[in-house]
Amino acid sequence: MNFKSVLLASAGLLIATSLLADRKLGVINDFNKVEEYRSNSIASRQYREMTLEKNVLSAINSSFTKKYVAKEREALLKGLGMKDITFEQEKGTYNYYLSFSTKGDGAQTYLIFYNFATNPELFLQDPVDERVYLKPSDKEMERQAQVDKQEQEQTFSSGDQGSGSSDSAPGNSGNTPASDKSKKPDGTD
Which of 73, 101, 67 is nearest to 85 (CA)? Predict the structure, then answer.
């Protein structure tokens, strides 16, 4: 190989490398500019509402798919829209608390918690955490509160008010169980 061919090959390699590098840098720069523009642009109110509605309705449908068979789910969610759902976002988070009632004779109220990874008003996504509860009737909640209160009163009236160990005997300070009183200091009986 002579000097000319080596020089020519080096020049060709240098030109090819610079052309490829320019293409990559141009694409990366364009991508970064567009990404910065999109992150700094403010989405319209209509877009935010539409995206949140899609996320919420999709999440409810997904949650009920896990909980109910198809016929029950379709009956429960028939005609459900954002106008039927009340929701509240926990401040500073992407946690949403929802409530909606089914229609018909056996109307039931559902309480749902969803935690989204990113802002559900801007990005289509599924929640990362969910909890779905069927709200009991007010009568049932009152009855349960009364049962809890009665159990609490019985616990306190039985004499066990947290004064010490439950296996302490009368006259015992509660520091050592009654079975340990009969032992000698060296541990023998």
Answer: 101
